[in-house]
Design brief:
The chain is mainly alpha-helical. It is built from five helices and no strands. α2 packs antiparallel against α3, α2 runs parallel beside α4 and α4 runs antiparallel to α5.
Length: about 140
């Protein structure tokens, strides 16, 4: 004896599909715009470093670039966790300063003659990012 499967009727309800990532993401309007801009800037710096990885001439140079990419990635995560925090005028001005330094870093990375200058430029920039992160966390 074989059992026939019952065809679903029009009255049967189909379970709702899970929301997509886009539907689950909060609207950009509720994110702090200054922190969001800093977050985007860090992502761009990470992409710049990733592009430099293709130009590495040795395993040591590639590893140094990967280390800097990891450091920038850590800051991306830290800033991302603060996207919905409020800031003060002083912090907003500090973010503007970091954003200007970010553009300078991008140029320095593209013109870096060696790995040491790349590391020094990135480290100096990340120090500024860390200072702003500390200020935001203390609010």
């Amino acid at each position: 004896m074989s059992k026939k499967k019952k065809k679903p009727s029009k009255d049967d309800t189909t379970p709702a599909s899970p929301p997509t990532l886009a539907a689950a993401s909060p609207p950009a309007e509720i994110m702090n715009p200054e922190i969001r801009e800093l977050h985007q800037s860090l992502i761009q710096r990470h992409q710049t470093l990733s592009g430099l990885l293709d130009q590495a001439t040795s395993a040591d140079a590639a590893q140094a670039i990967l280390n800097e990419m990891r450091e920038v990635s850590n800051r991306i995560t830290a800033v991302g966790a603060l996207l919905f925090n409020q800031t003060t005028a002083k912090i907003d001005q500090g973010i503007v300063t970091v954003l200007e330094a970010s553009a300078d870093l991008d140029n320095a990375l593209k013109q870096a003659a060696d790995v040491d200058s790349l590391i020094k430029s990135t480290t100096k920039f990340l120090g500024q990012v860390d200072k702003i992160l500390g200020m935001i966390k203390l609010l």
